[in-house]
Design brief:
Layout: H1 2-9, H2 14-34, H3 43-47, H4 51-70, H5 72-75, H6 96-111, H7 123-127, H8 132-147, H9 155-170, H10 193-201, E1 212-216, E2 219-222, E3 228-234, E4 237-242, E5 245-248, H11 249-256, H12 258-261, H13 264-272, E6 281-285, H14 290-293, E7 301-305
Antiparallel strand pairs: 1-2, 2-3, 3-4, 4-5, 6-7
Keywords: Cytoplasm, Cytoskeleton
Region (Disordered): 167-189
Protein name: GAS2-like protein 2
Length: 315
């Protein structure tokens, strides 16, 4: 179908891919939660007036109130929102009323949900689209906090909970308190994950490929260190759990694979290189060292090769 063809092209760079993936997940979540006409392409347009955001804030407050009545003992130990937010549902994009809605939502996030400034955004970030990243991260953090008292969470937050449970089992820690039944989670999709990971790793054409070793389902060791990462499939994206957030595996490798992060020219060359393209070599004569004078063998020539295996060399 035409839509599938467009998605297969993916008209964005790897540095933008993780933001695209998060917007896609949040759009689907809001669509299911409020029956909105929203998708990743219209994500900002639907939310820029602040009306949906304020309605969402009021719904979160309502769910928190029900949780407090059902589980007063647990609620006493959580930071729950106690007040809603004023909203102008008729606000138009870019108007003062839209800015007022967004500003009210921001103040509610800070005061009622205790979201720290490092995860907050400013009014103009959304209204004038100055910083979509901060806006998306704030929405995701709000979803995490609301999930603690029983609100349905986006898929990314559900995957975070999965990973936390897996870590608890490995460390033999007691399970997390879940006083209210959680909404049903989507089944974990790890089908073909290994092949998809290998496909992305194989883009490195170094003679010694950047290592990424499978430890268990969805867990890999990367690089020459003992760093372990959790990998999950989110629709058409391979996501990596990084610190308190997420990244795409493609962007993660661009930042950590030495042949990708140190040579932009190599990345461009990889896209255009044909299999028959000759490999460039440089040969240096090594000066004699003190070790050589003591009879220890030392190399006389060093061959430096580009990011591809060496062809036969006629000496």
């Amino acid at each position: 179908t035409p839509g599938a063809a467009v998605r297969s092209i993916r008209p964005y760079q790897s540095s933008e891919q993780y933001l695209y993936a998060m917007k896609e997940d949040l759009a689907e979540w809001l669509k299911e939660l409020y029956d909105l006409d929203i998708e990743v392409g219209t994500f900002v347009e639907v939310l820029e007036t602040g009306a949906v955001l304020c309605s969402h804030a009021n719904n979160v407050t309502h769910v928190a109130g029900e949780f407090a009545r059902a589980c007063p003992g647990v609620a006493h130990h959580l930071r729950l929102p106690a007040a809603g937010v004023a909203c102008n549902l008729a606000a138009q994009p870019g108007t003062f009323q839209a800015r007022d809605n967004v500003s009210n939502f921001i103040q509610w996030c800070r005061k009622e949900m205790d979201i720290k400034d490092v995860l907050m955004f400013e009014t103009e970030d959304l209204v004038l689209r100055k910083n979509e990243k901060n806006f998306v991260l704030c929405l995701l953090e709000l979803a995490r906090r609301a999930a603690r008292f029983g609100m349905r969470a986006p898929t990314l937050v559900q995957m975070e909970e999965e990973i936390e449970e897996e870590l608890r089992q490995e460390l033999d820690l007691p399970p997390a308190d879940t006083p209210l039944p959680r909404p049903p989670r989507k089944p974990r999709d790890l089908h073909n994950l290994d092949q998809m990971v290998q496909h992305l790793v194989s883009r490195c054409t170094c003679p010694v490929q950047f290592p990424m070793i499978k430890i268990s389902e969805g867990k890999y060791r990367v690089g020459d260190s003992n760093t372990l990462i959790f990998v999950r499939i989110l629709r058409e994206h391979i996501m990596v759990r990084v610190g308190g957030g997420w990244d795409t595996l493609e962007h993660y490798l661009d930042k950590h694979d030495p042949c990708r992060c140190t040579s932009l020219s190599h990345k461009q060359a990889w896209k255009t290189r044909s299999p028959q393209q000759q490999v460039q070599h440089e040969i240096w004569l090594c000066p004699a060292s003190k070790a050589a004078t003591r009879g220890q063998p030392q190399p006389l020539l060093l061959v430096s090769r580009s990011q591809s295996p060496l062809p036969p060399v006629a000496w």
